[in-house]
Design a protein that fits this description.
mainly alpha
């Protein structure tokens, strides 16, 4: 890391944009390996600002989301939350049709709800469901949140519809195994569990 940062300093003096971006990517990777997603995210953010591409902003947002899952210090959590939202919102502005970024923004809020609006993430997700009622990604996200709160019947309804729309979706199938096991539906559990295991081979 020290060697890379020294190299970066020299590159910044030469203003070689592509080389600087490559150095940022290496540093983001090294800090991530060292278990420092906040620092990794800071470099990912620099990359996104220089490239200004949807994928770069999405990667930055995802990195900051991982920071939110691992860090406990208030200042670090606040920083990662702010930057995750900024990154995902920018990615959405660059490609409004990519639902993955919208879902990731929703999950950022549901997993780290604002104190002044704890239902913000859920509200955003329900709004998305109204706009895209036949979208498996949204149905699976709703089901996942229902599973976390032990609302297995509700999760089963969402997942059953998702499975009808996309019967080859591995995530749907594996969650259906979990839900049917919790509900005591032995036959359905065995069926979906076998499918899940085969798809994960």
């Amino acid at each position: 890391v020290i060697a890379l940062e020294r190299q970066l300093g020299l590159l910044e003096e030469d203003s070689d944009t592509l080389a600087i971006i490559d150095a940022y990517k290496q540093l983001a990777g090294e800090w991530y390996k060292l278990g420092k997603p906040a620092i990794s995210g800071a470099y990912a953010l620099k990359i996104a600002q220089m490239e200004n591409q949807e994928e770069s902003w999405s990667i930055a947002g995802t990195t900051f989301s991982l920071c939110l899952q691992r860090e406990t210090e208030d200042k670090v959590v606040a920083y990662c939350m702010e930057k995750a939202v900024e990154a995902f919102e920018t990615a959405i502005s660059l490609n409004p049709d990519n639902l993955s970024n919208r879902i990731n923004l929703v999950l950022t809020y549901t997993e780290n709800p604002p104190k002044d609006n704890p239902m913000k993430g859920i509200t955003m997700l329900l709004d998305l469901n109204e706009r895209y009622p036949e979208e498996p990604l949204i149905l699976n996200t709703l089901a996942s949140l229902a599973i976390k709160t032990s609302q297995y019947e509700r999760a089963l309804v969402r997942l059953s519809r998702s499975y009808e729309l996309d019967p080859k979706n591995n995530k749907t199938i594996c969650m259906l195994a979990v839900v049917n096991e919790q509900l005591g539906n032995k036959v359905e559990f065995e069926r979906f569990n076998q499918m899940c295991n085969e798809m994960n081979k």
